[in-house]
Automatic annotation (TrEMBL):
Belongs to the histone deacetylase family. InterPro entries: AcuC (IPR003085), HDACs (IPR000286), His_deacetylse_dom (IPR023801), His_deacetylse_dom_sf (IPR037138), Ureohydrolase_dom_sf (IPR023696). This is Acetoin utilization protein AcuC. Signal peptide: none annotated. Residues 27-323 form the Histone deacetylase domain. PANTHER family: HISTONE DEACETYLASE HDAC1 (PTHR10625:SF10), HISTONE DEACETYLASE HDAC1-RELATED (PTHR10625).
Length: 399
């Protein structure tokens, strides 16, 4: 049976309590993006499928948060949530990106609990795939909030896997922004390979994630960065993805894959420039799922991340992610349910798309076709391959 026609036991983390992660009405990260995703997934019938189980997130304890965050920082977040006027800007709290709000600690820790619940479900064997579309807060580092991210749920889930005896975890980040926080937390740990494909830091926050960031002492080659040209488009991103991710995944042989699917790379996202379609985002999710099936007995945890087009992009992208994880027959030509489109029009005054995909041409040029030194995308990919491939016994030119 092909992976496109198979179904997979999938745990999806969702509860309305996750909407408490709310920086205010003018902030780009509107929590209603999660509610609209859940509503669309439900209207598509995904939550009624036998292979999908809904898991409720919990508020991670200080001990669980402390596996990837400092106690000083956790206390600072708690203080900011009880007394927003006392938010410590030295650790990134109370800024325009990360304004303090009442209950900030519990709301942020609940997103972590969602990804820990996803990790626990996969570790226990209760499920093969798990999706926490409310997670993916990849900019938070050990002692600093950054880029709308307070606690790093993906990092906490990875540490949960390691503490349970997992020897190798592959983290793949396809958000438009560099997954800098997750990379920094595991920069010196060769048990974790972090691969981030993102818009170059020359044109986009956080200004990091270049090919020469390859890992700390003893973990050289385990941080992998593809700094994509600003206007890469579908063909460029998919060429880069397939030129870097599968060869390194095969060489690393992870026991679990955890991926971050920020959909802010979309052409209609207001904060980024990569010009990617939902069709290309779907293809990457399918490729990651298939890598997990081939390499690590299917064990795959997927999170959300960035994404700021509230009604047109985010719900379609993450409902598609859930469908890919479960193996549900929802593709680019699937009609968006009229019930959902009517809801969006009534409550948001927006005309939602008619189809789940964008009708984009996602053809991409295989690396085996050849390398063009005059092409910005190819130079980016080659810089990454030259920096890390030899460290894993791979040839940057031919593998």
């Amino acid at each position: 049976m092909s992976s496109e026609s198979a179904s997979f036991p999938t745990s999806v983390v969702w509860d309305e309590s996750m909407l408490a992660y709310n920086f205010g009405p003018t902030h780009p990260m509107n929590p209603q993006r999660l509610a609209l995703t859940a509503r669309l997934a439900s209207d598509l019938g995904l939550f009624d499928r036998q292979e999908i189980t809904i898991a409720e997130p919990f508020v991670a304890t200080d001990g669980e948060l402390g596996t990837v965050h400092s106690s000083h920082y956790i206390n600072a977040v708690r203080t900011a949530g009880t007394s927003p006027d006392l938010a410590d800007q030295a650790v990134g709290l109370g800024t325009s990106d990360n304004p303090a709000f009442p209950g900030m600690h519990d709301a942020s820790a609940r997103l972590v609990g969602g990804s820990l619940a996803a990790a626990d479900a996969v570790l226990s064997g209760r499920t093969v795939h798990a999706v926490n579309f409310g997670g993916g807060m990849h900019h938070a580092s050990r002692s600093m909030a950054s880029g709308f991210c307070i606690y790093n749920d993906a990092a906490a889930a990875i540490q949960r896997l390691l503490d349970a005896g997992t020897q190798r975890v592959l983290y793949i980040d396809v958000d438009a922004h560099h997954g800098d926080g997750t990379q920094s937390i595991f920069y010196d740990d060769a048990r974790v390979m972090t691969i981030s494909l993102h818009e170059t830091g020359m044109s986009l926050f956080p200004g990091t994630g270049f090919a020469n960031e390859t890992g700390g002492i003893g973990a050289e080659g385990y941080a992998v960065n593809v700094a994509l040209p600003t206007l890469a488009g579908d063909g460029g991103l998919l060429r880069a993805f397939h030129s870097v991710v599968p060869p390194l995944a095969e060489a690393f042989q992870p026991e679990v894959i955890l991926s971050q699917h920020g959909c802010d790379s979309h052409v209609d996202d207001p904060l980024t420039n990569l010009r990617i379609s939902i069709d290309a985002q779907r293809e990457m999710a399918v490729s990651i799922r298939d890598l997990a099936s081939r390499i690590c007995e299917g064990r795959w945890i997927a999170t959300g991340g960035g994404g700021y087009n509230l009604t047109s992009v985010v719900p379609r992208a993450w409902s598609t992610l859930i469908a890919v994880a479960a193996g549900a027959p929802i593709g680019s030509q699937t009609v968006v349910p009229e019930s959902w489109r009517s809801y969006v029009l009534e409550h948001y005054g927006a005309e939602a798309p008619l189809l789940m995909g964008d009708g984009a041409d996602t053809w991409w040029r295989s690396w085996e076709v050849g390398y063009d030194p005059n092409d910005d995308l190819d130079r980016t990919v080659m810089a990454t391959r030259k920096a890390v491939f030899p460290l894993h016994g791979l040839d940057p030119w031919f593998d």
